[in-house]
Amino acid sequence: MLYDFIDTNEMPLNTYLPAEAICYNGKWIDEEIPAFRTLYAAGRESFFSDISELALESLDGAVFLRRRLTARTITVGYMITAESPEAFRLAYNWLCKLMSGTQVQIVFADEPDKYYIGTCKSVGTPESGKLCAKAEMEIYCADPCKYAVEETAVSASSNVLTVEYDGTYPARPKLNALFTGDAKQVIFTNTAIVSAGDADAESAVFVSGDYLQIDCNEAKIYLNNVSTPSLGDIANEYEDFLLQPGTNVITPAYTGTTPVFTVTYREAWL
């Protein structure tokens, strides 16, 4: 599942930030709290799966059914250094406030072009009785993937959309058509099919200047940026319309004047 994001490219990245400094909901914690220092981040490097299988008495081993990726927990080690107990408490209270958002974008300084979506589960408990104390916070990511901050756009060539997908986890694209004249229907095909409009309509469904977007991730159709579910076909295979790692070929078809076709997508990685 994809999410709206904050463009961290618009925020200047302090070159003095630790390599694994965390940006939580658009705020670099090391910059917001002078007493705070990121020490490390763990849990981004791997993923874990639950395997479903069927054991049969007549067979050795088991029959593989499916793999389900489990949620991800990212652990961030940090240190708070203060000159007084009051300053220490103030810094810790501010940390709790900054980490209070749920299902927010999370970026790390060593990978500023990608983000996770997560919720701080715990900010940890600093060592008591010290003005320079270490602790660990836990961030729970129900979705284990990370996503590209920037969407990628590809235009059709010879009426074919060819996508070289560099992500490691499949993504559902947005399929777009800008109409240059009257048209009744558009269809996009890869290993699945989605369409909008009606080839049997008595008059044009789309006119010059109309902009159509089929969002396969949301399973929604927009006409001129307005959600228009009536344009969709009940048989649309939104869930199965995936970009897989490697080369993907999407073939548009249409009834009427030739539109300008593009596809936009956000790469995902484990």
Describe this structure in words.
The chain is mainly beta and 270 residues long. It folds into 2 domains: 8-148, Elongation Factor Tu (Ef-tu), domain 3 (Beta Barrel), CATH 2.40.30; 152-269, Jelly Rolls, CATH 2.60.120. Helix content is 7%, strand content 45%. Strands 1, 2, 3, 6, 7, 8, 9, 10 and 21 form a 9-stranded antiparallel sheet that branches. Strands 11-20-13-16-17-18 form a 6-stranded antiparallel sheet, with no helix packed on it. The protein starts with 21 loop residues before the first strand and ends with a strand.
List keywords for this structure.
disordered N terminus, single chain, mainly beta, 6-stranded antiparallel sheet, Elongation Factor Tu (Ef-tu), domain 3, 270 residues, 45% strand, Jelly Rolls
Quick structural gist:
With 270 residues, the protein is mostly beta strands.
How does the SSE layout of this entry go?
Elements: E1 22-24, E2 27-28, H1 29-32, E3 36-42, E4 49-54, E5 63-69, E6 72-81, H2 85-98, E7 104-108, E8 111-122, E9 132-141, E10 146-148, E11 152-155, E12 161-165, E13 174-178, E14 183-189, E15 193-197, E16 211-215, E17 220-223, E18 226-227, E19 246-256, E20 260-265, E21 268-269
Antiparallel strand pairs: 1-2, 1-7, 3-6, 4-5, 6-9, 7-8, 8-9, 8-10, 10-21, 11-20, 12-19, 13-16, 13-20, 14-15, 14-19, 16-17, 17-18
